[in-house]
Amino acid sequence: MAKKKAARKATPKPKTKAKAKAKAKARSSAPTGRTPQSLNGWITHTELASMDPNATRKWCAKVLGWTFRPSFAMPDGGEYMLYMYSDKGGGGIRPNNPPEVPGSIPYVQVASVKAAFAKAIREGAEEMLAPEAIAEDLSIAIVRAPGGVPIGLAGPK
């Protein structure tokens, strides 16, 4: 019991909004693949491609109550706005890339993106984006499932 109290004291909660914002900013960065394995098979990230990402962000915050983390720059330009709708899921808002139409892609957490991608292709999906590392411990891929539905895969290589 004494060890638990000591651990709590070692990580005090911020007492001001400024400290809370600084702590949140320090934690924010590109996403990682450290999602618990217990979430494999769950949609843990939904990406929204928008013609006006700022308008979409404001609407989602006001209407849906989503919270946003600081944005980060995307390699191809533009901002990626990370949001959370629960402690187990969230996503990002980015500009759509014409001729891409605005829309969304759900990303399902998998144990291995490479293995899940190969299985998806064997079972009749079409490649949209081959497995690609986007962070040290996070890879993504996108397939078009039978029926034309895009599905993202996310997790370790």
What share of residues are in beta strands?
35-45%
Mean pLDDT: 83
Instruction: Tally the helices.
Output: 4
Oligomer: single chain
Portion in helices: 25-40%
The dominant shape is: globular
Q: What structural class do you assign from the helix and strand content?
A: alpha+beta
**What is the string of helix and strand elements?**
HHEHEEEEEHEEE
Q: What is the makeup of the main sheet? A: 9 strands, mixed
Counting DSSP E segments of at least 2 residues, the number of strands comes to 9
Report the end-to-end length measured between terminal Cα atoms: 39 Å
Poorly predicted runs are 1-29
- Radius of gyration from CA coordinates: 18 Å
Question: Explain this structure to me?
Answer:
The protein has 157 residues and is of the alpha+beta class. Helix content is 27%, strand content 36%. The chain has helices at 2-10, 17-27, 53-64, 113-122; strands at 43-50, 67-68, 72-73, 79-84, 90-95, 103-109, 126-135, 138-145, 149-155. A hairpin with a 5-residue loop joins strand 4 and strand 5. It is globular, with a radius of gyration of 18 Å. It starts with a helix and ends with a strand.
